[in-house]
Amino acid sequence: MATHTATPSAPEQSATEHLALEDRIWLLRAMLLMRGIEERAMSLYRQGKVPGSFYDGFGQEAVSAGAAFAMAPQDRLCILHRDLAAHIIRGVSPAQILGQYLGRESGITRGRDGNVHFGDRRLGCVGMVSMLPDMILVATGMAMAFKLRGERRCALTWFGDGSTSRGDFHEAMNWAGVQKLPVVFVLENNQYAYSTPLDKQFAVDPVERAAAYGFVGLTVDGNDVEAMFEATRAARERALSGGGPTLIEAMTMRMHGHAAHDDMKYVPTEQVEEWRKRDPIERQELRLGELGVDIEALRVAVQEEIEAAAQEALSAPMPDPAGATDGVFCEREAEPLGDGQAPWSGFAARALDAGAEPSRNAEAAAATEALS
Ligand SMILES: Cc1ncc(C[n+]2csc(CCOP(=O)(O)OP(=O)(O)O)c2C)c(N)n1
């Protein structure tokens, strides 16, 4: 029997039960990197150095950081335009991300796209398709393949509230429910789809629709990175044990315009101010500060890392125009997607149990020692 719970947040206790201190620091670091990279990129955009438009996820960092952190190396991710922390957690370097935004040869698409449509297939991430919400279908298709091949993997995708009004959303949900597919759907409810507010988008909160398709739907505080992690971790466990998909509705707020050109005049200032008090980074800093973590040292280290990455990206060459059409069509047999990084210590512990090498992120462990 499918259930829907409107509980706004998973209890703190259940989050920390699965998170070691190094994990909690990693989550903060991923959010700080996301915010810092996007702030740096926005200033580069204003200097005319980022071609195309610029989209960011300011204020929504916990949604991608928390969910991606719960995914194992062999899982597959379809990452959307406000989910930079997911790329970071999977192992894309800040220099590569900035190289991507600057259209450089060093970016993931090697200058073929800018700030939105990319994903490092070597890290198990599928590059974003612009038509919304087509990545829901891609994730569902991958989960179908895992089931048919008997592979123990889970697919995860993010999408916005506006995406839920399209027919493809319903087709994917229906098929995933019928087939009990190992897929996690993260609905990033950031209150607006471009200028359309929620009350003009749907008459019923879309999380309620999960029950109609026969699987679990739950609402999580999307500005609480640990609650996001815990909800996704549990959804992944359910998916891998045959319990089918989960629709996680992450309640958050788009704190900036739809893209850099948008002054979001249509959003009441009070609404933005209200959400500013729930900033996901400040929240995690408060938690860790109380545990004795040196937040300032972490902030400084992250800023230094971003500045070095910006310099590296700015000095990378532009792509050779002669190769502009390379890689547009698949000219040889496609390589399978690779596995991504999965820094959560829970995966490392399981690998140790199985006698394998730990996947624990050495950098995170060192950071914990230095900061606590
Ligand atoms: C089928 C389709 N229609 C329109 C667009 C243009 N578009 C890009 S993002 C966006 C808003 C999407 O809103 P939402 O799904 O809530 O995600 P958010 O941008 O708020 O994260 C629109 C209309 C698109 N990419 N695809």
Bound molecules: thiamine diphosphate
- Give the tally of β-strands: 9
Proportion of β residues? 5-15%
Order of helices and strands: EHHHEHHEHEHEEEHEHEHHHHH
Helix % is 40-55%
CATH-derived architecture of the domain at 4-193 and 201-259: 3-Layer(aba) Sandwich
| Largest sheet strand order | 1-8-9-5-4-2-3
CATH topology of the domain at 4-193 and 201-259: Rossmann fold
Give the C-level CATH assignment of the domain at 4-193 and 201-259: Alpha Beta
Poorly predicted segments: 1-13, 357-368
The total count of helices amounts to 14
Structural class: alpha/beta
Task: Please provide a written account of the structure.
- It is a single chain.
- The protein is α/β, with parallel strands linked by helices and 372 residues long.
- The protein has a domain at 4-193 and 201-259: Thiamin diphosphate (ThDP)-binding fold, Pyr/PP domains (Rossmann fold), CATH 3.40.50.970.
- It is 44% helix and 10% strand.
- It contains 14 helices and nine strands.
- Strands 1-8-9-5-4-2-3 form a seven-stranded parallel beta sheet, sandwiched between helices.
- Helix 2 (21-46) packs across helix 12 (295-314) and helix 3 runs parallel beside helix 4 (84-90).
- The structure holds thiamine diphosphate (TPP).
- Thiamine diphosphate binds next to strand 6.
